[in-house]
Amino acid sequence: MFGLHYNLERNAIGLVLAIVVVAGIGGFIEIAPLFTIDETVEQDADMRVYTPLEVAGRNIYIREGCYACHSQMIRTLRDDVDRYGPYSLAVESQYDHPMLWGSKRTGPDLARVGDKYSDAWNTAHLNNPRDLVPESKMPAYRWLLRNELKTEDLGLHLAALRKVGVPYTDEMIANASIDAYAQANPDTNDAPALAERYGDATHIRMFDGDGARLTEMDALVAYLQVLGKMTDAAYQPDLPEAQ
Amino acid sequence: MALSERDKVSGHMTTGHEWNGIKELNTPVPRVVYIFLISATIFSVTWTILMPSWPGINDYFRGLLGADQQAEVRQSVAEGVAERSSWTDAIVDEDFTTIRADPSLMQTVRETGKMLFAENCAACHGAEGLGNPGFPNIIQAPTMWGDDPATIMETIRVGINSAHDETRYGQMLAFGRDQMLPLSDVDRVVTYVQTLSDPAIATADNAEDIGEGATIFADNCAACHGETGTGMQETGAPNLTDQYWIYGGDRSSIRHTVYYGRQGLMPTWEGRLTPAYIKLLALYVADLRTAAK
C-alpha cells in the first residue's frame, strides 16, 4: 500500500488526480450535511421575517463588527442555558444571511437580548457604554445617533434576501423604505400597514427616543430588540423536526 | 536521473539525486507514523458509526450510541434545577418574613442574588444598585411603588411600562410640549419643584414665582406626586423632596422632564427568570435596602 504511494509520487499526472480525489473527499464531507438540511432544521410556521428597519440594523451590526465580540448562539451547555435561556435552534437563524452565530465572547451572548433591556438603555449604552457600566470595555458608537439611516436601498436588500429564501412579498419590498420610517415613528399613517405586513408583534416605537430623525441608532436598537423574539420555537422543547 | 543505490554508511537507499558527489538519502518514514495514521483512521471510522454522522437520502445516520446534545443539556439543566430545589422550594413556599428570619437561607439569597443582580439588573441600575442617569437608585432612594419585598417582586415580575399584560404603568406628562402649561408656568413650577428639595433656592426675588409655582403644582402635579410632592405609591410618581433624582435634579433636567415628560421602562422578567429567582431578587434588593438604612 505504501509502495503504491511511493510510485504515485513519481507519476505527475497520477499524483495530481490522487490529490483531487483526496481533496474531494474532504469537500464532500463538509458539504454532505447540507443535503439533509431540510430534515435537520426545525419547522415553525410562525417564524417572523426581519422588518426593513431590522435588516438595516442587522447590516449596521455587521458593519460595526459586533459579531467579533458577541456571539448569537446559546450552546447546548448547562452554563449557557442557565445564564442566557433556552439553547438556540437552527430555525431561529433560518432567515439569517449570513448567520451571526460567532464563536468569540468578549461581551455576552446576544441571542436572547431582545426586550431584556429598554430602548433607552440600549441607546445610551451604545452611545457610550461607560455612562452606564463604568468597567465596560466595549467601544462607544457615538456616530449611530448622529448618522441618518440610509433607507432608499432597503428594498434591494430585501429583494436580495428573497433570492436566498427569505419569504418577503413584493409588497414588502416595494414599501421597504416607508416601512423603515414608519417603524420608528408610531404616529405616522404608515404604521398600521407595517404591522399588517409584518405582524402585530412588530415593535413600532421611537427606538432612539427622537421621533424627528431616523438614525442608525433606531435601526440597530430595533434589531437588538428582536433577537430571540422571531419565534418561540426554543420554548417548546419537543418541536418536531420536519419529516 | 542517476540510479538509486544503497548508502554504505546508513544502509538506506538514496533517491538517486546527486550534487557534487553528495547523494540524497531516501530514509523510510518511521513506523510509528504509520501506526498513528492507521489507528487514527480506524478511530474516525468507528466514531462515525457510534455518533450521528453519515447523511442519507431522507435522514442522517443517528449513530449506535444515540448521542443527542439537546437531550443531554435538557437532562443536565434538569439536574441543576433538582440540585437547587433544596433552597428554591423554600424561597417559593415560605413567606418573606420567614425567609428573612432564616440566616442560612438569607446567606443563599445574598450569594445567588449577587450573581443574578449582576447578570440581569446591574446593566441599568448599576453594580451596586445605586442607579444611573435615567435609571433609579433602588438601594438608597425611596421606592416609587412600595418598599416591601412583595411589591418589589411584583415590579420585577411585570415591569413598568413593559410588554407584560399586567405591567405597572407610569407616565410623566409632557406639560410643555403638549401645551398643557404655558412656558412661563413651566418655568415657575420648575422653580417651585427645586425648592422642595433645596429650600436655599428661595430668595426674595423669586418669591412670587415660587408662590405661583405652588399653585400650578397643586393644580397639575399634586394628583400624582402628592400635595407635598413626596410621591405616591399608587401612581408610581417619585418623591420630589429628597436628594435622589432619576433624570437629574439640576434646573435644566427638571425643566426637560416637565416640558417633554418621562416614561421610563422597566422590562418584565416573567418568563426570563423563574418565579423563585424573581422572589430571590426581591429579597436581595430588600435586604440591601435594609442594610443601607
TrEMBL record, chain A:
<dbReference type="Pfam" id="PF02433">
    <property type="entry name" value="FixO"/>
</dbReference>
<keyword id="KW-0812">Transmembrane</keyword>
<feature type="domain" description="Cytochrome c">
    <location>
        <begin position="52"/>
        <end position="228"/>
    </location>
</feature>
<dbReference type="InterPro" id="IPR009056">
    <property type="entry name" value="Cyt_c-like_dom"/>
</dbReference>
<keyword id="KW-0349">Heme</keyword>
<keyword id="KW-1133">Transmembrane helix</keyword>
<protein>
    <submittedName>
        <fullName>Cytochrome-c oxidase, cbb3-type subunit II</fullName>
    </submittedName>
</protein>
<dbReference type="InterPro" id="IPR036909">
    <property type="entry name" value="Cyt_c-like_dom_sf"/>
</dbReference>
<keyword id="KW-0472">Membrane</keyword>
<keyword id="KW-0479">Metal-binding</keyword>
<feature type="transmembrane region" description="Helical">
    <location>
        <begin position="12"/>
        <end position="35"/>
    </location>
</feature>
<dbReference type="InterPro" id="IPR003468">
    <property type="entry name" value="Cyt_c_oxidase_monohaem-su/FixO"/>
</dbReference>
<keyword id="KW-0408">Iron</keyword>
UniProtKB/TrEMBL annotation, chain B:
<keyword id="KW-0472">Membrane</keyword>
<keyword id="KW-0249">Electron transport</keyword>
<keyword id="KW-1133">Transmembrane helix</keyword>
<dbReference type="Pfam" id="PF00034">
    <property type="entry name" value="Cytochrom_C"/>
</dbReference>
<keyword id="KW-1003">Cell membrane</keyword>
<feature type="domain" description="Cytochrome c">
    <location>
        <begin position="208"/>
        <end position="289"/>
    </location>
</feature>
<keyword id="KW-0560">Oxidoreductase</keyword>
<keyword id="KW-0406">Ion transport</keyword>
<feature type="transmembrane region" description="Helical">
    <location>
        <begin position="32"/>
        <end position="50"/>
    </location>
</feature>
<keyword id="KW-0479">Metal-binding</keyword>
<protein>
    <recommendedName>
        <fullName>Cbb3-type cytochrome c oxidase subunit</fullName>
    </recommendedName>
</protein>
<comment type="pathway">
    <text>Energy metabolism; oxidative phosphorylation.</text>
</comment>
<keyword id="KW-0679">Respiratory chain</keyword>
<comment type="similarity">
    <text>Belongs to the CcoP / FixP family.</text>
</comment>
<feature type="domain" description="Cytochrome c">
    <location>
        <begin position="108"/>
        <end position="197"/>
    </location>
</feature>
<dbReference type="InterPro" id="IPR038414">
    <property type="entry name" value="CcoP_N_sf"/>
</dbReference>
<dbReference type="Pfam" id="PF13442">
    <property type="entry name" value="Cytochrome_CBB3"/>
</dbReference>
<keyword id="KW-0813">Transport</keyword>
<keyword id="KW-0812">Transmembrane</keyword>
<keyword id="KW-0349">Heme</keyword>
<dbReference type="Pfam" id="PF14715">
    <property type="entry name" value="FixP_N"/>
</dbReference>
<dbReference type="InterPro" id="IPR004678">
    <property type="entry name" value="Cyt_c_oxidase_cbb3_su3"/>
</dbReference>
